[in-house]
Design brief:
The protein is an alpha+beta fold and 173 residues long. The protein has one domain: 7,8-Dihydro-6-hydroxymethylpterin-pyrophosphokinase HPPK (Alpha-Beta Plaits, 2-Layer Sandwich). A hairpin with a 2-residue loop joins strand 8 and strand 9. Helix 3 packs antiparallel against helix 4. The two termini are 15 Å apart. Keywords: ATP-binding, Folate biosynthesis, Kinase, Nucleotide-binding, Transferase. It comes from Desulfoscipio gibsoniae DSM 7213.
Length: 173
């Protein structure tokens, strides 16, 4: 799946390649993720490029909930990391995200996984995403998009293969 919308000069003035994790386990998760991708592509200063296949994954953390549908999108943006986060949270809110239980059920979850090669460590914004290298639902679709990407000192496809053997993840059909 690929969407296109021109990036405008906002924020940094430079176009950055980022990876966004998307997940949902409340409602019609496939439709919600499709709508989130559409809205992401419509954000000024953001263009959605390649999108990995959808995966059905077991919940992590709080496990007494339905399975998730997850994917990863590659985006180009001229937004700053903070502006991008604000845009993602706006989309989450518009699509009915309510934060009640950490790692609990949600209509949609949008996370900045990588923002170029930048490292950001703020209370509400950590990039690279601090747990991405531990989660098959992030690494498998990320490896679909960029298998040679290095995450935590390991190539994405190697890390994804190992995590897929340890955690439940299936291509969504």
């Amino acid at each position: 799946m690929s969407l296109s919308h021109g990036t405008e000069t906002l924020g940094t003035g430079r176009t950055m390649r980022c990876y966004i994790g998307l997940g949902s386990n409340i409602g019609d998760s496939r439709a919600i993720i499709a709508e989130a991708l559409k809205r992401l592509d419509e954000l000024p200063g953001v263009a959605v490029g390649a999108v990995a296949p959808l995966y059905r994954t077991a919940p992590v953390g709080y496990v007494e909930q339905d399975y998730f549908i997850n994917t990863v999108a590659e985006v180009s943006t001229t937004l700053t990391p903070r502006q991008l986060l604000d845009g993602l949270q706006q989309i989450e809110n518009e699509l009915g995200r309510v934060r009640v239980i950490r790692w609990g059920p949600r209509t949609v979850d949008l996370d900045i996984l990588l923002y170029g090669e930048q490292t950001i460590d703020e209370p509400d914004l950590q990039v690279p995403h601090p747990r991405m290298g531990q989660r098959a639902f992030v690494m498998v679709p990320l490896a679909d998009l960029n298998p040679e990407l290095v995450v935590g000192g390991e190539k994405a496809h190697i890390l994804a293969r190992r995590l897929a053997e340890e955690q439940e993840i299936h291509i969504d059909k």
